[in-house]
Amino acid sequence: MSDLLLNKALKKAFIDKNVESQYLNPKFIINDTDKKEFLLSVLQQELLSCQSFILSVAFITQDGLNTIKTQLSDLADKGIKGRILTSTYLGFNHPDVFHSLLNIPNVEVRISNKSGFHSKGYLFTHQMHQTFIIGSSNLTMSALKLNYEWNVKLTSYDNGEMISTIHDHLEKEWESATILSREWIAEFSKTYQPLPKRMTRSEDIITEEVSEYIVPNRMQKEALNSLKELRQSGERKGLVVSATGTGKTYLAAFDVASYQPKRFLFIVHREQILHKAIESFKKVVGGKDTDYGVLSGQKKDLDAKYLFSTIQTISKDGYQELLGPDAFDYILIDEVHKAGASSYIKTLNYFKPNFLLGMTATPERTDGFNIFELFDYNIAYEIRLKDALEENLLCPFHYFGVTDYERDGQVISETSDLTYLTYFERVDFLIDKINYYGCSGNNPKGLVFCSRKDEAKELSRLFNQRGIASSYLSGENSIEEREQVIEELESGKIHYIFTVDIFNEGIDIPKINQVIMLRNTESNIIFIQQLGRGLRKDESKEFVTVIDFIGNYQNNYMIPMALSGDSSRNKNNLRRDTIDVNYMTGLSAINFERVAKERIFKSIDAAKLNSFAELRKSYQRLKNRLNRIPMLYDFEEMGELDPLVIIQREKTYDQFLLKMKEDCPLLTEQERLALKFLSVELLFGGRPHELLVIKKMIMENKTYLSSEDIYKLWDEESIDYNQDILVSALSVLDLSFYEAGLQRNYRPAQLFDQKNNGIAMTDFFNSSRKNTLFMKYVMDVVTTGLKKLEKQGMPSTLCLYSKYRRKDVLRVLNMEFKQNEQGIGGYTYSNNQFAIFVTLDKGKDFKASLMAYEDEFIDEETFRWFTKSPRTIKSPEVQILKDFKNWTIHLFIKRKYNQNDKETDFYYLGEMEPIIDTIEQKEKPTSDNKLKNVVEMDFILKHRVEPDMYEFLTGKIE
């Protein structure tokens, strides 16, 4: 079989592209940001499944090496080793890279002595074949993920001439190369001449060291224009939401320079920020030094034109009375998410500026206070973390989700006592991991966030005891003490600051190149705040290393939620975001060790993400932002919560609003039933055809559309269709598609009838159009459903790896729906379509079936399946599968993670064909100890399952 597959692959690649073939196909690889396809992903997947490897690459950077460190760590856990052959050609490889290579225990490294060594080849040995990738990409982050590179992936068996030639050549080169050692690095370092640093694009410059004349970057220009337009429209308040390190202070200075206020007030919550802000303003706004003053516990420059004050001082009655309510025509509040405090509210109520600007990286608050309301819901500009990284405004980061210390089966958790948290073996474990993942330049300047003060203090002592200079800071330390320790970190006197309740925000330490998390993730906001401590650009670093030690914490599910920005509260989305991390573009990267992934999955399984309390929080956040009752479309548009989560729980949005205690007029029972039909049956998508018909009839106030009208509509919307789709769509709209039970349920609120080869509104629907609230809900469902489908490209058929319910599959494939979904069970067939639904990992206590079926993936392209019982070789479905030429067979997979998992959706894995000689009738025992006939067979999938999806569904790496 394997020889046949390789023969087909080679024929498809080099003779006839129309040949059906599988994953052994040669592949042309380029980095494609739009498709989220990168050479990096291919290399990581090859490493995950290989038995050994050898990389022959001339150039290696620390960031390039970082991209495969978690995969190498997982290989080390399995006892798998590899080799790397590199060079000193052109002086590209820095001594720091060679030190980093030595810290990888399961990789042997040698330095080629060949003159002009410039190879870029990656060879992986698998159980049944070998894969090699040759092209233009070195082991650098830019080459693996960003640059326009050409690479070709080829597959061979051991006796192939090309693979034998490559092996022989590599072995010869390896034997003649120099073994990497610390002694070799010491000698190399003596004569090493670093390459000139790359120039930074001027539009991305946000630090004053680059030029004496400061100009706005692209983001700042857009924000300035938006602020100007806001004021021109008559607004007197504005909010700027901008990730930490993107130049908010300079942005404010540019806007003040443009506004030219008679007097200006800058309010912050900490005094040490004032002086840095003044220096930035001076460079942009200009003027005399005497124009700038400070109002704080130490200074009282009340007459300054540009006054920079702490909130603690400006909020006092005495100073407010001395200044007067009309003292300033422009007031700016930095870190405005703190403005819910009484001191801020009092100050804002007292002063009456012509314009009030607020700036924050995190406007969402955990205490329910509405920052958006404070600024009249005027968001002048918004740039979040992912956007700022893509715009090259921040320093790239490499996030490593690693496993925390485990001893005798006990793992760090929220309740671990101090002795366990600071056990000397754990400290050694932490240091080994920190050294392994390293940092830019191998000279750490790190912040370590701990779970409690005594832990931070003790860990700092133990690090110092091991010769790693560290300090401990908490809220009990004075400002002067904090600034002294920060100066020691930046100057290199110490390597780490251990802390608990400070440094989440409002602190600027540009030289931080390592952020270490030794605590439970309490919230998305805090996670991003702590991550952001290291993202400010600085010439001392090329990237920031973030090492997150993941213990057995209940809130681990928040990690993929925070990194991806996915607030949908959809468990399967979070599981995929833990495995498929290509949502992080640019030069940043996310990687999880295998055990860390398992701990995150365990947390996702246990979390109640659709609880009433969680949904209320999401609802209130969006309502606060919009200043109105949000609709389903708002949730989809803003990414706050997947509308399907609401509908799965409450069936209709008006019911959800009642649960939110909104004072909304009630619908009639008939209207609510109609809304339930639209929400439950059509919001889930699958295809846009029915939704477009409904939208046209409502928007154009029509009561009837002919078939010709519908075809014209679908033509205008550029979606595929045929006669079968028309027949199917009309049967869905008039309910005749549905099985008898569902038809009876929905019939009292039927919205459409088929008439004269077209579709007509029922009298009920036509009369209900007078109810504007009902029609608002109806259009909300329609537009939200179309918005969801728009993200998939408005499909007319099934999309690979998309999720479907059984009845959505039947609808999209124009099949018959004659029994309820539970009755469909594992498969159904009609209209030359055969759909197989499989739940993997049913668990030992699975009671939903009389017989324990052993459906499973043999590998990424082969699936083993059993029919229902009792079935024999002569059963109708088996006869169809034995002679399947006129049938299309589809596979849908659901992973059941635990018995409380209510997930009803299946992932579409594509078409497949049975391997005829594997079809075999067998007897299997039932739960009541009887034997029944079933038929077993293997299938070959048309599309080999992508490794990330395969791992997600099976938990296995093949």
CATH superfamily of the largest domain: P-loop containing nucleotide triphosphate hydrolases
Number of strands: 36
- Globular, elongated, flat, extended or rod-shaped: what is the shape? globular
Distance between the amino and carboxyl termini = 18 Å
The proportion of residues forming helix, as a percent range, comes to 25-40%
What is the percentage of strand-forming residues?
15-25%
CATH topology annotation of the largest domain: Rossmann fold
Largest sheet: 9 strands, mixed
Rg calculated over all Cα atoms: 31 Å
Low-confidence stretches: 198-211, 842-849
Q: Please give the CATH class of the largest domain.
A: Alpha Beta
Mean pLDDT: 88
Write the CATH architecture name of the largest domain. Answer: 3-Layer(aba) Sandwich
Q: Based on helices, strands and strand pairing, what is the structural class?
A: alpha/beta
Number of helix segments? Answer: 39
Number of domains: 5
Structure in words:
The protein contains 39 helices and 36 strands. Residues 198-211 and 842-849 have low confidence and may be disordered. Helices cover 39% and strands 19% of the residues. It starts with a helix and ends with a helix. The relative contact order is 0.06. It is globular, with a radius of gyration of 31 Å. Strands 28, 29, 30, 31, 32, 33, 34, 35 and 36 form a 9-stranded mixed beta sheet that branches. It has an 8-stranded mixed beta sheet with strand order 1-7-6-5-2-3-4-8, with helices on both faces. A 7-stranded parallel beta sheet has the order 11-12-10-13-14-9-15. With 958 residues, it is an alpha/beta fold. It folds into 5 domains: 2-191, 2-Layer Sandwich (Endonuclease, Chain A); 215-388, Rossmann fold; 395-606, Rossmann fold, CATH 3.40.50; 612-790, no CATH class; 803-954, PUA domain-like.
